[in-house]
């Protein structure tokens, strides 16, 4: 018999708060995490707002003063990750009764790179530029870079740093990995972590994602791609997945972590089981780096794989937590893919919602945040809304649970994450029944 | 696990400082060539280290279909190295892919159903092209003071970057381009764990095929540290061989107590992993079998080595256990040794713990001629390991005459040595990070 994998701990650091229940309440209330960007002066950028983690995030309060001091050089995303992972660990009860064998505990994150040391890098570039030759003088560049860059800050940008900080903080000795498949990363991380436990290579995995791209070059990159909403005058409602007037995603930041465990391990220690992760699907569009395959080929295949992996059929899915980014292309093609897979033979697709309407897009951390949302939806029998949905789009004609949460009898939920370049990952999670 | 499928290696594609393609690498190693030279990619005279290991010139048009040439314009060097390696990997494995058909290099149907063809590719922290980025940034900054005007940048400066700029530097773009070019639609992942990336990616591909989620995976990694930003990062971390007078041939000395550090490099390596029955059915040449994978975590620091190498010891132990082997049966060890004393000492401590009092175990250390290519290094190590098994030959390992591992490891010096080896272990660990991984490869015996 294949091992069953359950979630026994959850933690997140989000633009709507840092505690599970508080953020869940705000998601059901339709709150928006968006505000003018304060991490840097974005006032003249095409997009002047974002969905930042607020001042209520205090790492020392979560991990203690000593640990906060030890990890003082950690970049913002590693700090989010430490906070979320510590809370998930605590939620799982491991803070008071740690696992007996830490070599059987692993980490699999979808961790983003740390924010670039922008002003130092810009100074080196600007000073090193030879205007007449239109060329960078690398000798001048090196001199300025050496003066202004900080050795630890550079190391802390490596995408595996969040996982490494968590390992050191919690003493994790098992398999440890980090994926960075763009916006699909943390869904993929949780799926692969599940596979590691299923095979017996670990009993417990800390998994999830963390990211902050709200820095000058991150926003520049997305603005140049015209991927971000520029609704600067109405930022609170700028993220409007599936609405006809959507004009791009809202960049968010944060971390979300779950503790995954084999059912037998969880039961043996009498853990509270929050949900079961039952299926995982992963595909590549192999189409274009700039566009999603127009038939939703990879998305359909990923959802299908995940549902089959869970031993279910599409009609068993009660709720879909969409990738739903509020970009023209994603929402249209995700809708098409869901329609193709779920309405075969005249069936009705299950309700769909996107919490990115409230949280923004946490990029590598998005999938894990949304998986936790699914767990809470299953627990309480309530679907969080797709907020700011006012104008139906003829290309998006499904039930998006607009603007109001909805009570429903939920047993099984599906969560999608699709990354730039055509990485598609899907998880199926269900209410735990022994 | 008894119900798992067996997984074999049928192709190796590399782009290394010793040349492009597995034959160039192997011949270079056998002939004791050195890939370390004064850096040519940029004027390195302002840096503490002026040595590097650069991949010789190539033309991207030779590795993609004609209609994909435009896309090569949005490839960072790391992505290029992955795409070049992928081409050579499928050629070496005698696979027919969409790319080869489109290039009129093959006819007929692709050898693998695209929905059963996966990719697991390790990537580093890709650096922006500084010439391009600086050309844009200078529009909004003060050349004399380095002060930068974000408002000016937001208003206008940023438009000097091409719209697709960001896509050049997303780590998953190695995998995206490779899967597009060769039409691989099965599970696809990008592992970003520094130098451990390749081994973790190959290990995950091994698991993916073993559990039946794909028939073939292209896996490994690629990274280029041959740019001012990457080299500065390594300089700041104090890891590089410094000094203008350093002799390229002897600059990097794995496991040598008089070693002065590593040399930054670049390279890519992708292996074709294949389910055994699938490989047999298509009549593939089987180079070796993957029989074990192990990963583990160091916990003493996220930016320094664990002095006793405990994380590494656990990873090698997990891989051997996975392969159902005892350390005594290992007869080839491909070390990771970069020439940085503290890391090499930790590695040596780990090897002593795992292999105990054994003596004269045939071993390979490549960084002395290849430098450290980060996420690509591990896959190049694995490719060389496969070749050593395949040819029963231990290639020379430069600058390993007096290793701190004492009598445990036997490196070939100036000449290759004939060896009869059946079981190899190759491992890697992140220099900045806590990840360790090991792979066991065996000669295929039916």
Quick take:
Chain A is built from 15 helices and 16 strands.
Account of the protein in words:
By secondary structure, chain A is an alpha/beta fold. Chain A folds into 2 domains: 386 residues, Thiolase/Chalcone synthase (Peroxisomal Thiolase, Chain A, domain 1); 26 residues, no CATH class. Chain A is 35% helix and 19% strand. Chain A has 15 helices and 16 strands. In chain A, the strands form 4 sheets. A 10-stranded mixed sheet of chain A has the order 7-4-8-9-1-10-16-15-11-12, sandwiched between helices. Chain A has a two-stranded antiparallel ribbon with strand order 2-3. Chain A has a two-stranded antiparallel ribbon with strand order 5-6. In chain A, helix 4 packs across helix 8, helix 5 runs antiparallel to helix 6 and helix 9 packs across helix 15. Chain A is globular, with a radius of gyration of 21 Å. In chain B, strands 1, 2, 5, 6, 7, 8, 9, 10, 11, 13, 15 and 16 form a 12-stranded mixed sheet that branches. Chain B has a two-stranded antiparallel sheet with strand order 3-4. Chain B starts with 6 loop residues before the first strand and ends with a strand. With 446 residues, chain B is an alpha/beta fold. Chain B contains 13 helices and 16 strands. The model of chain B has no long low-confidence stretch (mean pLDDT 97). Chain B folds into 3 domains: 240 residues, Thiolase/Chalcone synthase (Peroxisomal Thiolase, Chain A, domain 1, 3-Layer(aba) Sandwich), CATH 3.40.47; 31 residues, no CATH class; 151 residues, 3-Layer(aba) Sandwich (Peroxisomal Thiolase, Chain A, domain 1). In chain B, strand 15 and strand 16 form a beta hairpin. Chains A and B meet through strand 4, helix 5, strand 6, helix 6 and helix 7 of A and strand 5, helix 4, helix 5, helix 6 and strand 6 of B.
């Amino acid at each position: 018999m294949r091992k069953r994998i359950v979630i026994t701990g959850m933690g997140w650091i989000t633009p709507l708060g840092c505690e599970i229940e508080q953020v869940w309440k705000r998601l059901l209330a339709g709150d928006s995490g968006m505000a003018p960007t304060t991490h840097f002066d974005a006032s003249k950028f095409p997009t002047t707002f974002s969905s930042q983690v607020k001042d209520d995030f205090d790492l020392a309060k979560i991990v203690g003063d000593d640990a906060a001091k030890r990890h003082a050089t950690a970049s913002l995303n590693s700090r989010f990750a430490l906070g979320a992972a510590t809370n998930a660990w605590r939620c799982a009860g491991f803070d008071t009764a740690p696992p007996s064998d830490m070599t059987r505990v692993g980490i699999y994150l979808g961790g983003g790179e740390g924010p670039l040391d922008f002003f130092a890098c810009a100074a080196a570039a600007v000073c090193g530029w030879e205007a007449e030759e239109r060329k960078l003088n690398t000798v001048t560049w090196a001199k300025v870079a050496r003066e202004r860059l900080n050795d630890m800050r550079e190391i802390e940008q490596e995408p595996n740093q969040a996982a490494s900080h968590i390992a050191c903080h919690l003493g994790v000795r098992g398999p440890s990995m980090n994926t960075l498949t763009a916006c699909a990363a943390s869904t993929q991380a949780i799926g692969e972590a599940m596979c590691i436990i299923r095979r017996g290579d670990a009993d417990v995995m800390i998994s999830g994602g963390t990211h902050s791209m709200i820095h000058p070059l991150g926003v520049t990159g997305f603005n140049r791609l015209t991927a971000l909403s520029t609704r600067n005058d109405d930022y609170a409602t700028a993220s409007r997945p599936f609405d006809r007037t959507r004009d791009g995603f809202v960049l968010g930041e944060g971390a979300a972590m779950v503790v995954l465990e084999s059912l037998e391990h969880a039961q043996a220690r009498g853990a509270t089981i929050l949900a079961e992760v039952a299926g995982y699907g992963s595909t590549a569009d192999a189409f274009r780096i700039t566009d999603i395959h127009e038939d939703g080929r990879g998305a359909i295949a990923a959802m299908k794989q995940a549902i089959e992996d869970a031993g279910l059929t599409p009609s068993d899915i009660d709720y879909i937590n969409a990738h739903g980014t509020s970009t023209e292309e994603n929402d249209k093609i995700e809708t098409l893919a869901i329609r193709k897979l779920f309405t075969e033979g005249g069936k009705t697709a299950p309700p769909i919602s996107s919490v990115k309407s409230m949280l923004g897009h946490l990029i590598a951390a998005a999938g894990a945040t949304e998986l936790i949302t699914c767990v809470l939806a299953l627990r309480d029998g309530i679907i969080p809304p797709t907020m700011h949905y006012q104008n139906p789009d003829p290309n998006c004609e499904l039930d998006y649970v607009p603007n109001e949460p909805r009570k429903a009898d939920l047993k099984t939920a599906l969560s999608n994450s699709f990354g730039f370049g055509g990485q598609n990952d899907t998880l199926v999670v269900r209410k735990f029944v022994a | 696990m008894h119900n798992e499928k067996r997984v074999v290696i049928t192709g190796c594609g590399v782009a290394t400082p010793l040349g492009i393609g597995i034959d160039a690498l192997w011949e270079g190693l056998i002939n004791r060539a050195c890939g370390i030279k004064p850096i040519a990619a940029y004027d390195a005279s302002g840096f503490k280290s002026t040595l590097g290991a650069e991949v010789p010139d190539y033309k991207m048009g030779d590795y993609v279909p004609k209609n994909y040439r435009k896309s090569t314009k949005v490839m960072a060097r790391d992505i290029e190295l992955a795409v070049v390696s992928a081409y050579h990997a499928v050629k070496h494995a005698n696979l027919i892919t969409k790319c080869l058909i489109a290039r009129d290099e093959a006819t007929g149907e692709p050898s693998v159903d695209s929905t059963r063809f996966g990719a697991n590719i390790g990537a580093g922290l890709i650096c922006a092209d500084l010439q391009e980025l600086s050309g844009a940034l200078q529009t909004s900054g003060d050349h004399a003071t380095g002060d930068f005007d974000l408002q000016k940048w937001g208003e206008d400066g940023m438009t000097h970057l091409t719209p697709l700029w960001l896509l050049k530097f997303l780590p998953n773009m190695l995998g995206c381009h490779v899967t597009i070019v060769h039409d691989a639609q099965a599970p696809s992942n990008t592992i970003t764990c520094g130098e451990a990336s390749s081994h973790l990616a190959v290990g995950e591909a091994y698991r993916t095929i073993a559990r039946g989620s794909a028939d073939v995976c292209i896996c490994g990694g690629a990274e280029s540290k041959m740019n001012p930003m990457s080299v500065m990062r390594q300089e700041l971390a104090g890891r590089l061989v410094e000094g203008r007078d350093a002799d390229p041939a002897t600059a990097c000395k794995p496991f040598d107590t008089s070693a002065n550090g590593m040399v930054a490099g670049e390279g890519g390596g992708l292996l074709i992993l294949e389910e055994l029955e699938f490989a047999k059915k298509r009549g593939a040449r089987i180079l070796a079998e993957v029989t074990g994978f192990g990963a583990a975590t160091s916990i003493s620091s996220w930016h320094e080595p664990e002095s006793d190498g405990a994380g590494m010891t656990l990873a090698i132990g997990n891989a051997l256990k996975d392969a159902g082997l005892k350390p005594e049966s290992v007869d080839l060890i491909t070390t990771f040794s970069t020439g940085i004393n503290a890391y090499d000492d930790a590695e040596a401590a780990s090897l002593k713990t795992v292999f105990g009092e054994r003596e004269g175990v045939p071993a390979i250390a490549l960084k002395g001629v290849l430098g450290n290519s980060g996420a690509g290094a591990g896959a190049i190590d694995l490719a060389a390991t496969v070749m050593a098994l395949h040819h029963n030959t231990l290639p020379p390992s430069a600058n390993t005459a007096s290793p701190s591992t004492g009598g445990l490891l036997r490196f070939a010096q100036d000449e290759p040595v004939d060896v009869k080896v059946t079981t190899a272990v190759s491992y890697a660990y992140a220099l900045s990070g806590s990840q360790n991984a090991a792979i066991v490869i065996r000669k295929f015996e039916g």
